[in-house]
């Protein structure tokens, strides 16, 4: 965590302020962390992928298994765990505008917000320090989550169904496209609830595509919960 914390402390004041600004705390949404989180999400995924690929044996770790490991490592709960170790809640509290009161407490206590700020930190570090330093810091910061994903993989399909079951809903998966030649096929899958699409995923196998669709559906549910909380 030391490398990512150091990069965070090096950020210019303006960039650092944006990282810890919730949309409800500014008149302009562009002043919030949203765009940085969008960028950081991609940097995070690439950093973890580039770290895993040369280190795991091709015979044991095919594309489908790599997809699951990466998805678990960069998931919302993983980002929340990193946020807590990085001190994001305390930094958000310090950045909250005077008079925010209960609104600030709700924002800071929302997992989706903490996950997004972690991504925003990564995006800002990438803009300021470049990919190499940021990727190295990201891999170090997410090492506990990466180890957990390797030793105790999570089934995103099961996790999604458990969440939906609380409301009596059932998720269905449908292959919508098969792209590429037989030896290099990519599958596209949609996850839907009562005909409403809740996630879309792609993968080298149908199972991998379903797992990715389930993961993105969980992210969408977290987004909705975060908006409701805000």
UniProtKB/TrEMBL annotation:
Mg(2+) binds at residues 116, 119. This is Ribonuclease 3. Its main location: cytoplasm. Its EC number is 3.1.26.3. Its cofactor is Mg(2+). It is found in: Cytoplasm. Belongs to the ribonuclease III family. The keyword Hydrolase applies. One of its GO terms (cellular component) is cytoplasm. SUPFAM superfamilies: dsRNA-binding domain-like, RNase III domain-like. The gene is rnc.
């Amino acid at each position: 965590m030391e490398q990512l914390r150091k990069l965070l402390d090096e950020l210019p004041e303006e960039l650092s302020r944006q990282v810890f600004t919730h949309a409800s705390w500014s008149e302009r949404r562009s002043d919030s962390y949203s765009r940085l989180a969008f960028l950081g999400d991609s940097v995070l995924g690439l950093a973890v992928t580039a770290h895993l690929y040369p280190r795991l044996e091709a015979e044991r770790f095919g594309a489908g298994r790599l997809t699951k490991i990466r998805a678990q490592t960069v998931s919302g709960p993983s980002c929340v765990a990193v946020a807590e170790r990085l001190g994001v809640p305390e930094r958000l509290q310090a950045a909250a505008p005077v008079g925010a009161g209960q609104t600030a407490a709700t924002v800071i206590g929302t997992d989706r917000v903490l996950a997004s700020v972690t991504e925003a930190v990564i995006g800002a570090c990438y803009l300021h320090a470049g990919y190499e330093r940021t990727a190295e810091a990201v891999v170090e910061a997410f090492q506990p989550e990466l180890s957990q994903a390797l030793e105790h993989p999570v089934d995103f399909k099961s996790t999604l169904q458990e969440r939906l079951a609380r409301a009596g809903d059932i998720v269905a998966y449908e292959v919508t496209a098969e792209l590429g030649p037989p030896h290099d096929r990519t599958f596209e899958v949609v996850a839907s609830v009562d005909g409403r699409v809740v996630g879309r995923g792609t993968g080298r196998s149908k199972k991998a595509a379903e797992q990715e669709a389930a993961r993105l559906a969980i992210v969408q549910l977290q987004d909705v919960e975060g908006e409701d909380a805000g």
